[in-house]
Amino acid sequence: MLYTAVLARHSQTGTDAIQGIVAQARRTGKGTFTVTYALKGDIFRLRIPPPQLPGRADGLWQHTCFEVFIAEKGQPSYWEFNFAPSGEWAAFAFKSYRDGGEIEDEALKPAIAVRSGANSFEIEAIVRLDRLPGVRPLASLRLGLAAVIEESDGAISYWALKHPPGKPDFHHPDSFALELALPDKSA
């Protein structure tokens, strides 16, 4: 099943370059998860990292990047993936709220595709859920979908399905606002 959600801009961060961000997520019976972010706005006013050799990189969240947080329903543990328009990525595992670190498994390498136009930008990432330690194949998942968007003047806006009170915090359990049912076995 394909899930579609609209991301909301955090109220403490502003931008008039972006009209909106829509995310689509799908979990397959083949152990993969696909997420697509479609951004509408004045793309020329954004600082989008140029293509690099695909690979792991640190600090992607400090610039334009797209993030997904994955947790099994009812569990405090979760995983985080960062996808940069450059093709770079990062993966993290957490036992509970912000208690964890980077995953060193290169087999997690997501497939990242980017499409861009004058008024639109799209990034798609395919993640191997079957490579994540501890994910049960038939478990219901909760997702946090988020984006960090940097404008050419350095201003940053934070986008998520749901923002908890206070400053932007994608790790907060309230941010995991989309529940994915069992995998689609036909995909």
What does the model show?
- By secondary structure, the protein is mostly beta strands.
- The chain has a single domain, classed as Immunoglobulin-like, CATH 2.60.40.
- 0% of the residues lie in helices and 48% in strands.
- It contains no helices and 13 strands.
- A hairpin with a 4-residue loop joins β6 and β7.
- The chain is globular.
- The mean pLDDT is 91.
Please state the second-level CATH architecture: Sandwich
- Mean pLDDT equals 91
CATH fold description: Immunoglobulin-like
State the end-to-end CA separation: 9 Å
Question: What general outline do the C-alpha atoms trace?
Answer: globular
Report the uncertain regions.
Answer: none
Helix content: under 10%
Report Rg: 15 Å
Number of domains: 1
Total DSSP E strands? 13
**Number of separate helices:** 0
Structural category: mainly beta
* Element string (H = helix, E = strand): EEEEEEEEEEEEE
CATH class, named: Mainly Beta
Query: Beta-strand percentage?
Result: over 45%
Major β-sheet annotation: 13 strands, mixed
